Amino acid sequence: MKIRAILPVYGRDLRLDLFRGIANWAIFLNHIPNNAVNWITTRNYGFSDGADLFVFISGYTAAIVYGRMMADHGFLIAATRLAKRIWQLYVAHVMLFVIYAAAVGYVALRFQYDNLLHEFNVVNLIHDPIETIIEGLVLRFKPYNLDVLPLYIVLMMLFPFVLWSVLRRPGLTMLGSFALYFAARQFGWNLAAWPEGRWFFNPFCWQLLFCLGAWAALGGGRKLQPVINSQWLVYLGGAYLFFALIMTLAVTFEGLRELIPGWLYGTFNPNDKTNLAPYRVLHFVVLALLVARFLPKDWKGLNWAAFDPLIKCGQQSLRVFCVGVFLSFLGYFLLTISYGTVLEQVLASAGGIATLCAVAYYGDWSKRVDKAIKRPSPLCTKIAGESKGA
Fold it and tell me: FRET pair for 115, CA 20 to 30 Å: which of 66, 91, 238, 286?
């Protein structure tokens, strides 16, 4: 079947790295409860947050990396490379699961803070460790804050088939994605969690953002250029963002909430994150379109030194995300056993961000060293040539 998608041109889009870094920082800060610093993240000013950005960019980058591979080398080659990536994600999740659960358990027992076991959903490891570990390995059991990576794994497992379809029938694929999204919301489809409940991130709904990212990477973004360049986007999009700002701030500020009709406030609050409410999707799409309008790919500011830490954290996304989840628990615990002042919140957040940056820069340096080691030196090349000549 003929490929109809527009394959991306070669070259790295630093905007993706920048915003993936922003998503990782936001996820870390938002996972620390009662942290004043997380007021700098977008979740306090609109319906969508770092999780939406993370999933969308994950779909976008996966389409860029594996789309051309599938087009040039076929389904099987791309599927095996995707399987390799899925295995890396799964191993990272298992390691994070073990270290995270062990850290929560150790802290709870060492400091006699048993409530931590319940707050972070690891108490079952004490009562029924074997079954809990098994359920964790099959992604049904997840400690608190460990929901994003299992969602990513499931979406990537299905992506070979989605990618094959997007390359050939991009419009029809997105129609199917929307149909699954609305059907899941209508009929309550979700995956079961253990020991009870369902997944916090419903994959039947969140696949929409992942597929939107893949569709945008493979030509969808170009098709939206008339919308991106339209002044109506600025007016209507800006008005919707302002509306989302008011609805979100009303959750925190009671005086503002009293000015809003109860039926209107109740429509948007609480924000349905589990099933990815339509107003949440619209909020993210408007933000993405405005970013595409006002932040071009060749913007020279992307090379500013101030953005380099964020870009590096985006380029080393998996390790930064995993370390961030662990640090969010550590930050929460340190604030719990201290006075929890604003200064302590700032120090805990700044220390965590600095650690994430250190992890990212080390990962970047290590990758460059590995490439240098694998590349033969000029002396070795010369000796090898002389050996062949002899």
Answer: 91
